[in-house]
Amino acid sequence: MAEREIETINHLLEVERNAQNLIKNAQVEADKRLSVAKAEAEKKFRAAFEKSVAEQERLFEEKTAKISADTERAISDFRSRISQTRIEKASFDSFLNSVLFA
Fold first, then answer.
1. Greatest pairwise CA separation for the chain in angstroms
2. Distances from the Cα of 51 to the Cαs of 37, 47, 55, 60, in angstroms?
3. Closest among 43, 65, 61 to 53, alpha carbons compared
4. Alpha carbon distance 49, 41 (integer Å)
5. What b/e string do you get for 1-24 counting C-beta neighbours within 10 Å, with b at 16 or more?
6. Rg for the chain, CA atoms, rounded
7. Where are the alpha helices (DSSP H) in 1-102?
8. Could you give the 3-state DSSP secondary structure of residue 87?
9. pLDDT of residue 64
10. Phi and psi for 86 in degrees, rounded to 5?
11. What is the pLDDT along the chain (102 residues), one digit of tens a residue?
C-alpha cells in the first residue's frame, strides 16, 4: 500500500513539474509577444511622430515665407510713400517754433 502512495505522490510531483514547465514556457512566449508588440507600437508611434513633425515644419516654413513676403511688401510700400512725400521745411519750422517757443 505504501508503494502505491509513493507512485501517486511521484505522479503528482511529475504533474506539478509539467505544470511549472508549461507556465514557464507560457511566460517566455508572453514576454516575447509583449516585446514584439512593444517594438511594433514604438515603430508606429515614431512614424506618426516624424510625419507630424514634418508637417509642422512645412507649415512653419510656409508661414515664415508668407510673413517675410508681407513684411517686404509693407516695407516697399512704406518706402514708396515716403519717397513720394513732399518735404515742406518752412511749415515744419513754423510748427516747431509754435510748439517749442510759444
1. 134
2. 21, 6, 6, 14
3. 61
4. 12
5. eeeeeeeeeeeeeeeeeeeeeeee
6. 42
7. 2-84, 89-100
8. coil
9. 98
10. -90, 135
11. 688 999 999 999 999 999 999 999 999 999 999 999 999 999 999 999 999 999 999 999 999 999 999 999 999 999 999 999 888 899 988 999 999 887
In terms of residues, how long is the chain? 102
Q: Cell triple for residue 76?
A: 516697399
Whose cell is 517686404? That residue is 72
C-alpha cell belonging to residue 87: 518735404
Residue with cell 516747431: 96
- Residue 80 grid coordinates: 514708396
Joined together, the cell numbers standing for residue 49 give 511622430
